[in-house]
Write a sequence for this structure.
């Protein structure tokens, strides 16, 4: 597969993903990160968090999956880097927390490799990932 034709400044169509407490439990089991701040309100608030929070690596994985889906091939993603800037609080309800994902083309090199500036915004409208960059192989 090849990447879509893009130029610097192009906006990748965004999407929203929901994260529920059930997702957190599944991710905890798969990742081995069983820290109770990801499933127990009492523990999370006891350490100063506003409530149970999504795993940072889960949030990053959702953003990376968004990029891979846009690229049409997960192998096209050569690197993905970010900083975790704000936790995603996941309420104990059926809806969970919604994360809005998006990206803008930051660079296209002479060989056609694409760098995307990726955004992930939590339910409060604030960014949860900072300096998120994805580099995709040339077309």
């Amino acid at each position: 597969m090849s990447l879509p034709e893009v130029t610097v400044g192009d906006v990748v169509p965004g999407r929203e993903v929901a994260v529920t407490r059930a997702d957190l439990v599944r991710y905890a089991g798969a990742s081995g990160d069983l820290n109770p701040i990801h499933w127990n309100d009492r523990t999370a608030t006891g350490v100063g968090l506003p409530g149970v929070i999504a795993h940072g690596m889960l949030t990053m994985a959702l953003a990376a999956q968004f990029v891979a889906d846009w690229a049409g091939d997960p192998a096209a993603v050569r690197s993905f880097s970010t900083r975790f800037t704000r936790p995603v609080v996941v309420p104990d309800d059926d809806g969970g927390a919604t994360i809005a994902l998006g990206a803008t083309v930051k660079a296209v090199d002479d060989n056609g490799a694409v760098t995307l500036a990726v955004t992930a915004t939590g339910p409060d409208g604030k960014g949860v990932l900072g300096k998120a960059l994805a580099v995709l192989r040339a077309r």
